Amino acid sequence: MIGFLGQAIFSLRFIVQWITSEKEKKSVVPVVFWYLSIAGSLILLIYAIERKDPVFIVGQSAGFLIYFRNLVLIKNTKTESK
């Protein structure tokens, strides 16, 4: 169940991005995309650790760091524009 939950949250981010882009009539990556990425990736990482799957662990760990970094960059951009 943990794996399915993580995959569902991870997949939800694409739906959110698609809906947002359709509303804006251009490609948009909303901030919630990155939060869903982190949540889904973290849950999938927990699942991978439980299954003792080193390939899955490395993949989810790398993604988790990239998603978190994107949130930091977004925060820094907003701070600089004030």
TrEMBL record:
InterPro entries found in the cross-reference section: Lipid_A_biosynth_N (IPR011499), UCP028440_lipidA_biosyn (IPR014546)
Organism: Acetonema longum DSM 6540
Superkingdom of origin organism: Bacteria
One Pfam family, short name: LAB_N
Spans traversing the lipid bilayer: 28-49, 55-74
Keywords per UniProt: Membrane, Transmembrane, Transmembrane helix
Name of the protein in its database record: Lipid A biosynthesis domain protein
GO terms for MF: lipid-A-disaccharide synthase activity
GO CC, any one term: membrane
Domain Lipid A biosynthesis N-terminal, chain residue ranges per copy: 2-73
Record-level GO BP terms: lipid A biosynthetic process
